[in-house]
Amino acid sequence: MAEIAVLGHGVVGSGVLEVLLSHRDSITRRAKEEIDVKYILDLREFPELSYAGLFTKDFECIRSDPDVKIVVECMGGLEPAYTYAKACLTSGKSFVTSNKELVAAKGAELLALAQKNNLNFLFEASVGGGIPIIRPISQCLAANEVSEIAGILNGTTNFILTKMIREHMAFADALSLAQQLGYAERDPSADVEGADACRKICILASLAFGSHVYPEQVHTEGITKITLEDVAYADAWGGVIKLIGEVKMGENGKISIQVAPMFISRESPLCNVDDVFNGIMVRGDATGDVMFYGKGAGKLPTASAVVADVIDCVKHFKARKYLFWEDAKPDYVEPIGAVPGDCFVRVRGEGSSDEAFAAAETVFPGAVRIIRREEEPGEAGFSVTEVTADKLDEGFARLSSMGVRVLGRIIISDY
Questions:
Q1: d(CA 199, CA 205)
Q2: pLDDT tens for residues 80-97?
Q3: 200 annotated active-site
Q4: DSSP readout, 352-385?
Q5: Quick one: 290 exposed, middle or buried, by C-beta within 10 A (0-12, 13-18, 19+)?
Q6: 333 vs 74: CA distance, rounded Å
Q7: What integer is the mean pLDDT of 236-241?
């Protein structure tokens, strides 16, 4: 029998217990051993539950129990999860987590500690919830040279943008609806500002390329500035707006990585990933583009991925799974301002729309105009190609001196 402990009995933690109890027989067959929960750590009490006797408020009783071989962390946040993870890995216990903040910030350190002690540190649920992505990249696509990863990594923002696109709902109204339906927290700032997606793309980048990327190294924009006018321009251009996390490996061995709203073509497989669903595309030299799609969060989908990691740990008690990355060199991440790409720009001048675009053409030769329905007087939208963010800023300053105000800019994706 394999005895485990679960840290946290919130949405995901209670889901882990539900999956373990309701699928006990099939899990035992797959693990080749019965998995038994010995402790559940939580400050609250749940006397109404059939397993109420398993609860403890004392982490030390878990850490010091030699019979507990695997600890599952479902609390979220960096602390005390980080302290608990180090203590478990130092005490001979493998560690399974759904905590994206922990993995994004401390993954390299904890993987090294697991390797040193011949243990496992597994985190399938930290990126895609119920979508398998960590194993496919580390195992199924191991024969490929992965060059790019791009994805819709946050269900809250995707739901909001879907409502803006399909129902022409303003951002504030779509956010309010997401909160009412339970798709967003009362304070969903990490979602709409892009922090949640940033942590996830950092984990994927670290895994795919073997060097740890920290969230603070990544250029991150949320969706709070996206307007219905932007949505209309995207439609006129031939696509939609999605919040995309992307990482690309350059020929110089450095990566460019960012999270930002982007124009996505209707021909892209990411275009039709709607509502609370997530989609992750991995580009390999042998496979080409591979797409992973599903619910990126939720109680049971996430719990399913956590329990799969527990089964993996049980099957690898004496044979550590190879999952590892190291700290990166200081200049590993390219400054995003120096990376060229395509971009949509929306401006407004004091005269007509034609005059506003004419000014834009003088600043950005080769700009292509995009005309939306019900375009406002003096407003113009256009696309520019192969321009860096630094050059855009220089051009915007020139436009301002010509009486043309920049209302917004959105990256145009090549996926």
A1: 10
A2: 999 999 999 999 999 999
A3: yes
A4: -HHHHHHHHHHHSTT-EEE--TTPPTTEEEEEEE
A5: middle
A6: 30
A7: 98
Which residue is it, tokens 């329905």? 373
Report angle CA 221, 227, 231 to the nearest 5 degrees.
100
The token pair at 355 is 């005059």
CA dihedral 66, 70, 75, 78 (to 10 degrees): 90
3-state helix, strand, coil split of the chain in percent (to 5) is 40, 25, 35
- Active site residue: 200, 248, 254, 321, which one? 200
Instruction: Kindly tell me the number of DSSP H helices and DSSP E strands found in the chain.
Output: 15, 18
- The number of CA neighbours under 13 Å toward the Cβ of 28 is 11
Find the angle CA(155)-CA(406)-CA(158) to the nearest 5 degrees. Answer: 5
Query: 96-113, pLDDT tens digit by residue?
Result: 999 999 999 999 999 999
- What's at 58, amino acid-wise? D
Please tell me the predicted confidence (pLDDT) of residue 139.
87
pLDDT digits (tens, 9 = 90+) for 173-183: 999 999 998 88
- pLDDT-based confidence at 297, cuts 50/70/90? confident
* Tokens at 186, concatenated: 């009362």
Inter-residue contact 230 to 184 (CB < 8 Å) = no
pLDDT confidence tier of residue 42, bands split at 50, 70 and 90: very high
Give CA–CA dist 196/193, Å, rounded. Answer: 8
Q: Give Rg (Cα) of the chain.
A: 24
Residue of 139, 145, 200 whose CA lies nearest to 322: 139
- The torsion angle over the Cα atoms of residues 313, 202, 16 and 23, rounded to 10 degrees, is -60
Cβ count within 10 A of residue 14: 19
